[in-house]
């Protein structure tokens, strides 16, 4: 996304939620401003010096803004459903990725499964399963 420029065609994304930073980011949260919702865990991991240094050289200052911040993954997902106007999470078309640099494997909501099965470029592996949260309300980490 580049503010003031027309978006490319293709997939329509209504909301972006970011749960965490990977260790490989070394605290550089550049791009955070593209998200709509983030967790407090992610915000605590931001190295402000790295973020400032990188964003000032890109001239896309909006990419360093901190979005609406929620205390847990569960709270973030609930907020996302409210923001999307969809009280039934089973109807939300959602993709979950472990790392933006490794998009070879994604987890999708059951509502996206029929479309994924029709797409010859995708291979569906595994069966639908419930999201698993720990006692704190955070999602079970995805394998990389």
What is the topological layout?
Elements: E1 17-18, E2 37-39, H1 40-44, H2 48-58, E3 68-70, H3 73-84, E4 95-97, E5 106-108, H4 113-118
Parallel strand pairs: 1-2, 2-3
Antiparallel strand pairs: 4-5
Any overview of this molecule?
This protein is α/β, with parallel strands linked by helices and 144 residues long. It has one domain. It is 24% helix and 10% strand. The chain is built from four helices and five strands, in the order ββααβαββα. The chain has helices at 40-44, 48-58, 73-84, 113-118, and strands at 17-18, 37-39, 68-70, 95-97, 106-108. The strands form two sheets. Strands 1-2-3 form a three-stranded parallel β-sheet. The chain has a two-stranded antiparallel ribbon with strand order 4-5. The longest helix is centred in the middle third of the chain and has 12 residues, at 73-84. The protein starts with 16 loop residues before the first strand and ends in a 26-residue tail after the last helix.
Summary keywords:
10% strand, 3-stranded parallel sheet, two-stranded antiparallel ribbon
**By helix and strand content, what is the structural category?**
alpha/beta
H/E series, N to C?
Answer: EEHHEHEEH
Number of strands: 5
Q: Tell me the number of helical segments per DSSP (H or I, 4 or more residues long).
A: 4
Shape: globular
Poorly predicted runs: none
Helical residue percent?
A: 10-25%
What fraction strand? 5-15%
